[in-house]
Amino acid sequence: MQTLFDYLTFTKGWTYIVAGVLLVTFIPFYLFLTEREKKSGP
After folding, report:
1. d(C-alpha 8, C-alpha 40), whole Å
2. What is the pLDDT of residues 23-39, one digit of tens each?
3. Domain that holds residue 20
4. How does pLDDT run across 2-20, given as a tens digit for each residue?
5. 1 pLDDT exceeds 80?
6. What value, to the nearest 5°, has the Cα angle with vertex 15 and ends 22 and 32?
7. Is the pTM of this model over 0.85?
8. CA-based angle 17:20:22, to the nearest 5?
9. How many domains does the chain have?
10. pLDDT at position 15, please?
11. Which of 5, 26, 28, 29 lies 20 to 30 A from 20 at CA?
């Protein structure tokens, strides 16, 4: 049987991992979008 503290620390750990992955993947995605915008100019 797990306690509430075990559940909260497990969930908090996964939240930090997911947030880190999103931040790391957002930078290349943003660069991809802005690069495409620059090339389609006059």
Report:
1. 48
2. 999 999 999 888 866 66
3. 12-41
4. 899 999 999 999 999 999 9
5. no
6. 0
7. no
8. 110
9. 1
10. 98
11. 5
Q: Which residue bears the tokens 């100019």?
A: 41
* Alpha-carbon torsion angle 12, 17, 23, 28, nearest 10: -160
Tokens matching residue 13: 């750990």
Residue 20 in domain:
yes
Q: What is the dihedral of CA 9, 10, 14, 16, to 10 degrees?
A: 10
pLDDT at residue 41 is higher than 60:
no
Q: Which two tokens stand for residue 33?
A: 């979008």
With tokens 């559940």, the residue in question is 7
Residue 2 carries which DSSP code?
-
